Amino acid sequence: MSRTIGIPATLTYYSYFPFWQTFFTRLGYKVIASPLSSKQIVDWGVKETVNDACIPIKLFHGHVVALRDKVDYLFIPRMVSVDGKATFCPKFLGLPDMIRASIAGLPRLIDERIELKNGARGLLKTCYKIGSNLKETPAKILRAYWAACKAHWQYQKLLIQGVLPGEILHQQEIVAVHDRRSAVNLAVLGYPYEVHDPFISVNLLQHLAAMNVKVWTVEMVPTHVLAKFRHCLPKNLFWHYSNRVVWACYYYLRQPIDGIIHVSAFGCGPDAMVDKLIELEAKKHNMPFMTLTIDEHTGEAGAVTRLEAFIDMVMFRRENR
Amino acid sequence: MKISFPHMGTSHIAFKHLIENLGHEAVVPPTPSKHTLSLGVQYAPEFACIPFKILLGSYLEVLERGAEMIISSGGVGPCRAGLYGMVHEKILRDLGYDVELLIFEPPLRGIVDFLKKIGRVIRPNGIGWGEFIKIFKTSWLKLVALDETEILSHQIRPYEVNRGETTRVFEECLSLIDKAWTREEILEAKHEAERKLRAIEQKQDYNPLRIGIIGEIYVVLEPFINLDIEKTLGEMGVETHRSIYLTDWTRDNTVFDGEKDIKKAARPYLNQLIGGHGINSIGETVLYAKNGFDGVIQLAPFTCIPEIVAKSILPQVSKKFDIPVMTIFLDEQTGKAGIQTRLEAFVDLLQQKREKRGVDVERVSGN
After folding, report:
1. Beta strand pairing status for A78-81 and B25-27?
2. How far is A15 from chain B (nearest CA, A)?
3. Segments of chain B scoring below 50 in pLDDT
């Protein structure tokens, strides 16, 4: 029987799951991702987490509970930095410690620090550490690493082509709108674990597709294009995902789009800054802008009403132009 | 030039001294009030923490009084506070104010930028670098005098016989230090303040409960936000020890031996810098427990990321060292009566814990 490694299906899952899945599978492990977010998982999370935490962190705790008794190892890397400059949100930095302090009866944690100061070489080193802690041979680790990199590049390529992470990771069916001329073009900005999690975003992407909206997300912009906008702010944000959102905002403001929706979690620290920056920037460009704040109490009907009103307004503007 | 700065505890007295000695007009921010807060809340992002809102409110107040430049501090993250200068500036510009925000980043991050910004302040009045350093040193001395007077007041308050006397005397001491201008005068004012505080009639043979105050720097330092927690506890007969003072690194601290000690104490529970005072909150709790404190109160602004991480880890520390920890998240909705009730309950709990251990202790007043 092969040993199993559990990966909670939220937070960095949407960015790096194909990499880690391939890596551990090649090392001979069975990788189990937790099921899609659900009411049950949110309830578990809310029960285990400090009440002041944001919904993504509560959700993460819930996913850990869902996996707890099913796997031999839990993979919760300490995500510090992937570009050597911006770190992740402090809650990501303290995540393994929070999980340890809050949830009892955990399997063994793999909580290697991921802090890539010099790009790919740092990643190989980290993978080597993880592999050798699992008593694997260097050759095997190297092969697994290569396969993982290929899987990651493949994934990135699909994302840039406009495939949504949900469609790849959980074969979720979203009838995407492809004709950008007839459709309403909206930039839906936000962290991947909010925008692409159908439960917590109250099926935002499906609803938008049903309303004939062509959705543009942060993931569809290649990283090197995003990086061009790093001089737009006098001081960049400290957090990886937040920078990507703000840069994507600058990018889409220069594209022919009709409006911006910012998806943000209730009480999200970094988003307090991000949201204001986007709001002020959108105002400057006279671009319709809406913030959709989500938490465990968000009702689908309420969100849909707001979206419909927003899209009506955008359409009205377009027709009058 | 009319220059202003954020209000933070008693530090405005020293900043005023610095700005005026540099030949500018200091626009002293008014003590934060309901008005300050509602101004800030109106224009700040909803989930920004309360320091952001108070600062923004203060800036709007001093701008009404004609401030032309505001000096504040930056930071390197990952705590949000490092970005506040930039976002404040964008908001103020959007509101149509033409103000210069001078944000001082840590000098080690860019010494040239740091010196340039100092130059921007001292050059218009033709003050040389040597003179600036002299003025700065005197102001620093004032800041130290203020902090030391405050520390002493917190030590004496729980023993006072006439409730409220310490606070009254402390106010006198502040205006005494405020008036002192030269180095000698400041030293003299400090001694005078100490003498005045020590002259307060005190209870003898009284062994008060001791509570450590930890958390995010701004809410710990600014009594308006933390609803005067140290004064409230002091007047309940509890001795408080605060982990943070602006002039910390120059003082020999009786409980902590500097940052390094704190980080070392925190390592088994949180082995990663998470910005703000997150790691300090963990380490300081350990050290307070080891130094025989009865309890710890963590103060944090609502949505403060590092303190949320710390809060979720603190129960582990609390259990291991058998030290009660209470977390108070503060925002514009926090009410004084609610906090008072929670403090009384917490103090009751500590009292009972002591009695259980068989330590003879006089029941504290206010319960």
Report:
1. unpaired
2. 21
3. 363-367
Token duo for residue A42 = 């949110």
Quick one: fold of B2-127? Rossmann fold (3.40.50)
Measure in Å the smallest separation between the Cα of A8 and chain B Cα atoms. Answer: 19
Res B367: pLDDT: 35
**Do the Cβ atoms of A283 and B94 come within 8 Å?**
yes
pLDDT for the residue B156: 94
pLDDT bin (cut points 50, 70, 90) of residue A67 is very high
User: What residues in A contact B315, CB-CB < 8 Å?
Assistant: 101
Domain A165-319 belongs to what topology? Rossmann fold (3.40.50)
ipTM for this model: 0.89
Question: Which sequence spans correspond to the domains of chain B?
Answer: 2-127, 142-206, 208-367
Closest CA to B67 of B19, B122, B137: B19
Q: What is the model's pTM?
A: 0.90
SS3 A309: helix
Which residues are CB-contacts of B288 (< 8 A; sequence separation ≥ 6)?
Answer: B212, B214, B241, B255, B296, B323
| Per-residue pLDDT at A174 exceeds 80 | no
Q: Do B47 and A113 touch (CB under 8 A)?
A: no
Residue spans per domain, chain A: 4-160, 165-319
Tell me, rounded to whole angstroms, the distance of Cα B254 from its chain centroid. Answer: 18
For an interface test with A, the pick among B305, B314, B334 (most A C-beta atoms closer than 10 Å) comes out as B305
Considering only the top CATH level, what class is A4-160? alpha beta
